[in-house]
From TrEMBL:
Residues 1-28 form the signal peptide. PROSITE patterns: CYTOCHROME_P450, LIPOXYGENASE_2. Keywords: Heme, Iron, Metal-binding, Monooxygenase, Oxidoreductase, Signal. One of its GO terms (molecular function) is iron ion binding. This is Cytochrome P450 oxidase 75B1-like protein. It holds the Pfam family p450. The keyword Signal applies. Heme binds at C446. PANTHER family: CYTOCHROME P450 71A1-LIKE, CYTOCHROME P450 98A9. InterPro entries: Cyt_P450 (IPR001128), Cyt_P450_CS (IPR017972), Cyt_P450_E_grp-I (IPR002401), Cyt_P450_sf (IPR036396), LipOase_CS (IPR020834). Belongs to the cytochrome P450 family. Its cofactor is heme. It comes from Platycodon grandiflorus (Balloon flower).
């Protein structure tokens, strides 16, 4: 009897070992490929100053879906359109949240905006407000006169500077900031460079704050990845985030106070005229699922102002940079403009559907130079199997849009700027074609993409329609650098400088 018990015990132990071995083998097979991590730092040693390019090179070795360790935390990187589709469509809800970051805590009022808010009732309500209230077609159409007025201001300034060196990004940023400020805040809350100080902030100062915001929201902050050394703030990023937050908070408080005073003065006759007015009305709505407090209003304001400003200006500057490297493309674009628009008026937003080559230029720019080279990181809400691999709850997921735009399996001669590749194609940037995702896709797609497309399209079209462009006398086409600066947005490292001259009748510039 005792020998039988021993035999049964041995058999049970053997079966247990075999089952455990099989489980471990299957588990090992379901792990994603990736570089072997170092203790504590993980694979951070492999990430250079341009993380999207570092990850692009690693993907060539480990594949379209790979796993790394950033410090102590697991990171998964998707570098192909098919893998992007897995996260942004097939398993969209599982990966609809955001990771915890210092940027979310310190620069967005503790995750009170839509960009960094975790998935849940607050985020769902915020996105609904954006889509149905702030970015509805009717609302955007009602603000077209603002976009027209500011575009005319841009044209007038460039005309006055004809024959002199122009730093294009400065003028584009000023125009987009003016448009967004008037739409969102009701007026320009900054003083123009040529005017005396009458507002709470100067244009240059406000642009510096936005540049800092984009940089700090895109950096790899070591404290995010190795939480037990977070308090040391080894890179100084948290200190900068706190300082920036104070500056932005003073500005937003001033804006809200002015709007509240105007509401109180008008009483029952008050009519909302801008997006801050709408947000303040919504904050008083007792039927909201989640109450919007003052930090929530500021978080939404920041999303709207920052998201609408730098992205449009950056994309148009990249487009002009690529066109000036290939002047024959400018000739094609202006031939289309002369044929469709003529030379007796400016390009309007309603004209853009009749300008397929201009649309192709913008798409090609967003393919090679997406503003968000890595989409804002996603976080897994639960364990999930993607493409046969196990991805665990809490994993951070990056979609490398920059890498997808250079995939030779999708794009012929991917490093070449060639707008013709989009002519006659149905590929768009609205999140349904995963080979082209400048605004993302799925639940976390940028809700303001329609406004961005309107501003980018009309700006680029009128820059080309209204002016001839040439490089400074001491500069050749080969001298145009295409180096980048990494952040939540990815602008040119060296601003594009050019000389303009009018190409339309002079009375149009008045």
């Amino acid at each position: 009897m005792e020998s039988l018990s021993c035999f049964l015990l041995a058999m049970a132990l053997l079966v247990a070992i075999l089952l455990l071995s099989k489980f471990l083998t299957n588990h090992q097979q379901s792990l994603l490929p990736g570089p072997k991590p170092w203790p504590i730092i993980g694979n951070l040693n492999l990430i250079g100053p341009l993380p999207h390019q570092s990850l692009h090179e690693l993907a060539k070795q480990y594949g379209e879906l790979m796993q790394l360790k950033f410090g102590l935390l697991t990171v998964v990187v998707a570098s192909s359109s098919e893998m992007a589709k897995q996260f942004l469509k097939t398993h969209d809800q599982v990966f609809a949240s955001r990771p915890v970051t210092a940027a979310g805590k310190y620069t967005t009022y503790n995750y009170c905006n839509v960009t960094w808010a975790p998935y849940g009732p607050y985020w769902r309500q915020g996105r609904k407000i954006y889509l149905t209230e702030l970015f509805s077609s009717k609302r955007l159409d009602s603000y077209e006169y603002i976009r027209v007025e500011e575009r005319r201001e841009l044209i007038s300034r460039l005309h006055a500077l004809s024959g002199t060196l122009v730093t294009l990004k400065d003028h584009l940023s000023r125009t987009t900031l003016s448009i967004v400020s008037r739409i969102v805040l009701g007026k320009k809350y900054f003083s123009e460079p040529e005017a005396r100080q009458t507002e709470v902030v100067k244009l240059e100062e406000f642009q510096e704050m936005l540049d800092e915001l984009f940089l700090l929201n895109g950096v790899l902050n070591i404290g995010d990845w190795i939480p037990w050394i977070d308090f040391l703030d080894l890179q100084g990023y948290v200190k900068r985030m706190k300082a920036l937050s104070k500056k932005l908070n003073r500005f937003y408080d001033h804006v809200i106070d002015e709007h509240q005073a105007r509401r109180q003065a008008a009483g029952k006759d008050f009519v909302a005229k801008d997006m801050v007015d709408l947000l303040l009305e919504l904050a008083d709505d007792p039927n909201l699922e989640v109450k919007i407090n003052s930090d929530g209003i500021k978080g939404f304001m920041q999303d709207l102002v920052a998201g609408g400003t730098d992205t449009s200006a950056t994309t148009v500057e990249w487009a002009m940079s690529e066109l000036m490297k290939q002047p024959h493309l400018i000739k094609k674009a202006t031939e289309e403009l002369d044929k469709v628009i003529g030379r007796d008026r400016w390009v309007e937003e309603r004209d853009f559907p009749q300008l397929p080559y201009l649309a192709a230029i913008l798409k090609e720019t967003m393919r090679l130079h997406p503003v968000a080279v890595l989409l804002a990181p996603h976080a897994a809400l639960e364990d999930c199997k993607v493409a046969g691999y196990d991805i665990y709850k809490g994993t951070t997921v990056f979609i490398n849009v920059w890498s997808i735009g250079r995939d030779p399996q999708i794009w012929e001669d991917p490093e070449k700027f060639m707008p013709e590749r989009f002519l006659g194609k149905v590929t768009d940037v609205k999140g349904q074609h995963f080979e082209l995702l400048p605004f993302g896709s799925g639940r976390r797609m940028c809700p303001g993409y329609t406004l961005a497309l309107k501003m980018m399209g009309s700006s680029l079209a009128n820059l080309l329609h209204g002016f001839n462009w040439k490089l400074p006398d001491n500069m050749e086409i080969e001298d145009i650098s295409m180096d980048e600066v990494y952040g939540l947005a990815t602008p040119r490292k060296f601003p594009l400088v050019a000389i303009t001259e009018p190409r339309l009748p002079l009375h149009l510039y008045q």
